[in-house]
Amino acid sequence: xxxxxxxxxxxxxxxxxxxxxxxxxxxxxxxxxxxxxxxxxxxxxxxxxxxxxxxxxxxxxxxxxxxxxxxxxxxxxxxxxxxxxxxxxxxxxxxxxxxxxxxxxxxxxxxxxxxxxxxxxxxxxxxxxxxxxxxxxxxxxxxxxxxxxxxxxxxxxxxxxxxxxxxxxxxxxxxxxxxxxxxxxxxxxxxxxxxxxxxxxxxxxxxxxxxxxxxxxxxxxxxxxxxxx
Length: 229
What we know:
Largest sheet: 6 strands, parallel
CATH architecture of the largest domain: 3-Layer(aba) Sandwich
Radius of gyration: 17 Å
Number of helices: 9
Distance between the termini: 23 Å
Helix content: 25-40%
Order of helices and strands: EEHHHHEHEHEHEHEEH
Oligomer: single chain
Strand content: 5-15%
């Protein structure tokens, strides 16, 4: 674990799926339920997990081996989303150590928020089910702004809602698009190695300010970064 930032951080922004919360069990359940409805065998969880951060389109492509242009693709995608919405907090939990991290951020007089590509009709009920809606300084969904990650616009919107400048923000995510968006926004960035990163991906090459194996390691990063405050 290496640290390269000495910024003074006021706001920590998190990706949702694979960073703040472990949503993979419920998304896998929705996909395998859909596969069953279509007379297909379920996929192993280990196969589904690395794809979760890429959204419903990627999950349907994985499950049915169909291009997005296929005539029945959108029907399958909409059914997947309906199944997921129905079971959105069946097994989803914060990653181990994330509750302690959020408590530390708030106790240190910083704030935190969520910036995700997940649409609002899924993001908002999930945050409510996790009991986090009132605690978050901002919740920016995939359809909140005109652009989505890897464009920096949603991150910049999030830091404005949180009352911070981009230079005062840290963005934590588990996908390369998260790091690209954070860097383009002018924020410090950390890769959540505990998230949904495929074996073929090389997060050490994404250009982040650090890689963390557990949420609690972000506490160490923040303490070091803010030591000069």
